Amino acid sequence: MTLANHSALENTIPPANHPYFGHLGCFLKFCNEVRQYTDLPICGVGGLNDPDFVEQQLFDGHIQCAAMSRQLLADPDWVNKLKNGQAKQIYRCVRCNKKCLGGLMAHQGTRCAYDALREKETQKA
Fold first, then answer.
1. Exposed, middle or buried by CB within 10 Å (0-12, 13-18, 19+), for 4?
2. Is 81 within 8 Å of 87 (Cβ atoms)?
């Protein structure tokens, strides 16, 4: 469940400082609205970078699944780190939109501001 305004991508892919959609789980309030009209599974999206928050939303039944894009760019090992009890080692998307949305807009592909840091850590290991 999300909103889309492709004439202003900062509303579709909101940065952390967005006046209306800057908070954790920024689009989840719309899931509750849609729930009134369907019993179908609802997928939540929007600023989902905190594993405990996502788990609580699933547990409470607000969503039946969670979708992430920028968070998985920030840390492609998010799921494995959770599975292995390494939640504190997760790189959390800070929603800066510099390399992900910026790269997309510049036709340079989607990247993350954490890429260089993760690469250095990989080289140390």
1. exposed
2. yes
